[in-house]
Amino acid sequence: MRVVVGLGNPGRKYENTRHNAGFIFLDRFAALNSIKFSPSKFNYYRAEGSLNGNPFVLIKPSTYVNLSGNAVRDMMSEYTVAPEDILVVHDELNLPPGGYKIKLKGSDGGHNGIYSIIQTLENDNFPRIRIGIGNDFPPGAMADYVLSPFNRSENDTLAKVFDNCTVLANEFIASGVKGLLDANSKLSKQDQTQSINPGD
Predict the structure, then answer these.
(1) Which one, of 82, 105, 90, lies nearest residue 1 by Cα?
(2) Residue 6, beta-bridge partner list
C-alpha cells in the first residue's frame, strides 16, 4: 500500500489557488483513475484505488495547510504504511511555474505544511514532489500571492507539469521510491526542468 498526500486548504474559497497545487493534482489524478474522494472519520478526505494490482490511497487533509501533519498522523493510524511509502505533493515558491523537483527527505524548506508533517511524525524521511508556483510578488505580499488563483497561462503550464507528475505518482505506487527515481531519470532526459534533491 502506498499513499499520495496532496497539500492545500479546504473549501471553495481556496479552489485553484497556488497554495492548493497539491489538491489540484490529486483531483486530476483521481479523475484519471475513475475514483472519487469521500469524507473519513479522520482529518482528511480519501480516495482508494488500484493501479495494475497495486493498491493506493489519495489523501487530502481537511485541515488548513499548516496543520497537515494531523491528517498524515491520522492516516498512518488507519493504514499501515512507513513514511517512505507516503508521497507528498505540494506547492513550491522557490521554483518557477512549470518547474518541479523531487525531494526524498530533509527539511521543510520553509513550507508550513511540510513543517507540520515533520514535526508531527518526528520524521522527515518521506518523498515529496515540489510543484513550482514562482515568487513574483512584492515584499510582504506572499500570503496574498499563494492564496490567489492561478492565471490562465499558469493553468496551461500546470497541466503540462501534472502530466509528468502523474507518471511519477504512477511509478511510486508501483515501485515506491525506486520507481519514483527511475521515472524521474527518464523524464529528465526529455525535459531538463526536473532535478533531484535527496535532502538538506
Answers:
(1) 82
(2) 89
- Catalytic, 19? Answer yes
3-state secondary structure of 142: helix
Cβ-proximal residues to 124 (8 Å cutoff; 6+ apart), any chain:
105, 106, 107, 108, 118, 199
List phi, psi (to 5°) of 199.
150, 165
Nearest to 8, CA basis, from 81, 51, 58: 58
Could you give the C-alpha distances from 70 to 2, 42, 114, 117, 155, in angstroms and in order?
A: 18, 9, 11, 7, 30
pLDDT tens figures, 115-153: 999 999 999 999 999 999 999 888 999 999 999 999 988
Among candidate residues 7, 8, 9, 19, the one labeled active-site is 19
